[in-house]
Design brief:
The chain is mainly α. It has a domain at 14-99. The chain contains 20 helices and no strands. Helix 12 packs antiparallel against helix 13 (221-234). The termini are far apart. Residues 1-16 have low confidence and may be disordered.
Length: 373
């Protein structure tokens, strides 16, 4: 028992041999290994648990390790930046006399920038939840009473990281702050509206989009687009038409708006008006695939119907006219989607009716080639 007691005493003596004075002598820690060893031994005694000087030096050591000045230690302590951050927070907690306050605040401000950099790196690598922790640490530093700084970029990074991480409500809280600060308002309005829809705050989302239309009359296309898509998904075609026509007044050269309007008119069996809209769409964007198909289908259906009911030469000529108009569009469509089975079979039927035997043979070969027969 006596030997055990003596051995224990020996350990205590060894531990006590390391003091803050040893850290002062080593400062500014050119010999990081020695400084780190002292810090680790002091931590074992628990004597310096509430000592701001100890935590200040510890923060300096880990900040230096993070800088990469010692590659071996940087590999051993990949979380050195967080260790420095937590150490400096301890300084603020225990430094009643404010002896290290200014230096600590300066260090924390530097760390805040590094958190943003490290968070961005992790985000680009796809580690969204880890990135969020870095951004939030940076935000916390900037919120300290001694700093009180708002870094909107960091809040934005935290917002998109939260969203990617699956924490939609947290993302909304960050976007709402950015909304209040008028940070990139068009983009924030749109992103926030989409998130409101995800959490069933539909009125919030709709109001935000409508607000965007009023506030940015020269740049409100995206707000109209989101409203139209929302009401399309809801099946409210009256409001789809309302906002599509409103948008066309401001953006008359937008092919997609004519296509949407044409689709609704077609669903209401207003075929002549739908045809005009699809034509307008193709004037603005000649290779708008869906408009090509829809317009060709209207002509095709007209032609087939007239052909099946034709009693006079005039009726037959009308049927062939519409089928040939459809043919032009379908051939154009195949230049975009060359293997489309539906289009190929529509063309086959047209060639049967119009008696274009050579074209019919070609289409049959293509159908056979792709196994569509």
């Amino acid at each position: 028992m006596k030997k055990f007691f003596c051995f224990f005493c020996f350990i205590m003596i060894q531990l006590k041999s390391q003091t803050i004075e040893d850290l002062r002598k080593l400062f500014p820690f050119a010999e990081l290994n020695k400084a780190l060893s002292v810090v680790e031994k002091l931590a074992l005694t628990k004597e310096y648990e509430n000592n701001p000087e100890y935590w200040f030096y510890r923060g300096n050591i880990f900040l230096k390790i993070h800088s990469g000045i010692n590659r071996e230690l940087s590999q051993i302590y990949p979380k050195a930046l967080e260790e420095a951050y937590n150490s400096y927070l301890k300084v603020l907690e225990y430094d009643r006399k404010n002896e290290y306050k200014k230096q600590t605040i300066d260090a924390l401000q530097s760390i805040s920038h590094q958190f943003n950099y490290e968070g961005s790196y992790l985000f680009n690598k796809g580690f969204y939840c880890e990135a969020l922790k870095y951004f939030e640490n940076g935000i916390y530093i900037n919120s300290l009473p001694e700093i009180l700084k708002v870094d909107t970029i960091m809040y934005y990074n935290a917002a998109i990281s939260s969203e990617k991480c699956g924490d939609i409500y947290k993302a909304i809280s960050y976007y709402e702050k950015l909304y209040n600060w008028k940070f990139e308002p068009i983009h924030i309005y749109l992103e926030l509206a989409k998130l409101y829809f995800k959490v069933e705050k539909k009125e919030n989302g709709l109001n935000l989009l409508k607000q965007g239309i009023k506030e940015f009359p020269q740049r409100n296309f995206y707000f109209y687009s989101e409203l139209i898509n929302y009401y399309l998904f809801e099946g409210n075609y009256n409001l789809v038409m309302l906002y599509t026509e409103e948008a066309l007044k401001n953006f008359p050269d937008t092919a997609s708006l004519y296509f949407i309007k044409g689709s609704i008119l077609e669903s209401e069996k207003k075929f002549e008006e739908a045809i005009e809209c699809y034509k307008k769409c193709l004037e603005k964007k000649p290779y708008f695939k869906d408009a090509i198909f829809n317009l060709s289908a209207i002509y095709y259906n007209k032609g087939i119907t007239l052909y099946s009911k034709a009693k006079t030469k005039s009726d037959l000529n009308k049927a062939i006219y519409f089928l040939e108009e459809s043919e032009k569009l379908l051939v154009n469509y195949l230049s975009i989607e060359e293997n489309d089975e539906t289009v190929l079979k529509m063309l086959k039927n047209i060639y049967v009716v119009t008696k274009k035997d050579e074209n019919l043979n070609n289409i049959n070969e293509i159908l056979k080639k792709y196994g569509y027969e």
